[in-house]
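Data availability excerpt. The first of two example chains:
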Amino acid sequence: MQDTLMLFGLDENSLRLGAFAGVFVVMALAEWLMPKKKRTQPIARRWLTNWGIIVADAVIIRLVMPILPVAVAFYATSNNWGLLNWLALPDWLAVLVGFIILDFAIWLQHLLSHKIPILWRLHQVHHADRDIDVSTALRFHPIEILLSLFYKMAWILVLGTPAMAVFLFEAILNGAALFNHANVRFSAKLDAVLRLLIVTPDMHRVHHSVIPQETNSNYGFNLSVWDRWFGTYIAQPKKGHEEMTIGLSHYQSDKPSRFSWAMLLPFRNR
């Protein structure tokens, strides 16, 4: 079974890592040059914790998951599994449809992670960060990452999503998460145009508010249309971006910036 995609002489992992690193550096520089919101915590400690979490994620995935989404897509195609294979769509259309449906699937997963208590226990590790910047996009508990992989692979098998669609979706989703978590100031006009299609930093920042109504809104990571269509869209935070409080109301201390605290948070009773 083919298990990796090659483009420009590079395998998918090298391409995704390169794209991820490039977007991270660009957004980190943008935060430094034109920040939107003043930080509440020292950056060094937060970044050390958030990078530590993604390293833990990578190690655990490597140990637990020998097969990743692109490999599952190749398997589905080679065995003629899934809706898109049965429909025999043109390649370009199958890639486009597969990409869009996967984006909806991630929107739905994000909504469910707020609505189902056991999933929220994991997802609150992400929301406990008291500042939101490009490093917050790295801050997901390893168990949540593993569940997300199983969830995506189930969709890929049912849909028969082409490997190219999966690769593009994963790469773009990672870049979009870095972009929309960034603490970057855009003009109101540019933000308004961008958010017609994609989730902007100002749009996603609302989702990280301590106000429950705002926390339970703007679930998109990439395309912005799902929140508009399903009534979960809030344009701006009630207190404004500069004055809004980020994080969770019951964790407004230095604890969320500690690696061990974040790893153990899902197993604590508040």
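And the second chain:
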Amino acid sequence: MKKIITISMFLVALVSFAQEEAPVEEKKFTLSGSIDAYYRANLNAPNDADNWTKPGTSFANLPGFALGMANVVASYEGEKVGFVADLVFGPRGTDAIFASPMYSATGNIVNQLYAYWNVSDNVTLTMGNFNTFLGYEVISPVGNFNYSTSYLFSYGPFSHTGLKADFTLSDDLSLMVGVMNDTDATEFNPTGDYAFGAQLGYKGQFLNVLVDPSFFEIDFTGGFDVSDKFYLGINGAYYSLEDDGGGFYGAALYPQFATSDAFKIGLRAEYFVEDGIFGAIGTGVADSSVFAATLTGSYVIDNLTIKPELRLDNASDNAFLDNDLGPQKSLSSFVLAAIYSF
């Protein structure tokens, strides 16, 4: 009996030691996402759909009570490999995948779909479809302070499909290089041409370059914590189509101030210029420009964020309709958005 007890105790100790020495890898599967809806009204222009006038930007432009999107993100994170499947449903999601060559009009709901391999502590390879690395704003409203989006974001790329490599060069310095299909052609390569991109990051400031078969873009994105309560975001970009086909350039500042843990207020002040007749502002006049000021409040209640927003777009030429359906240079509007994240 003593031998049996002794052997049993030895086996228990051996198993316990083995478990301590060789822990089982923890595999993390997560499901997250958001939904958003909003109310929008013009303050100095018609509010019926037949005579609807709006800023020349993406998202949050529908009249009255309107839907954004449902965003569901499934992800798996292993020690070395993982994936992200980011699905979108609703008007904002459809607009985000507008250039999918085959399936955007017939049910494509993929915003991002990629797998990655942590080759080492300092190198990660990613292949698939991923949102763009350029710009200050993103597709998901959870990632933006302002609910409506800027001209710079709306006319830069949304997504890429390809292969990229991320390098951690030091605690402060990072580098990304990638080869991709034509920008926003997310499902396959319809042209046989490829784009090349790079991002150099230093202490939260990023210089981005994208060389596409049809255009070239350089972009700076960054920001600074001026104090514990005050943050200043910065974005600037230059975009040029090939063969002197026009383009755009501009800059935006994003000062944000936290009045409490639950409430913040922020301003986006953007100056955007069309080079030639690019068509972004909607004036039909070469070299038009627009100054857009967007004041947004952000109130957080658990997982729900409420965002009231006032926006003024002031163009250099007539770009909007007034209440008498005549042309005007300025448009003021109000948005109230509700965003729930999980």
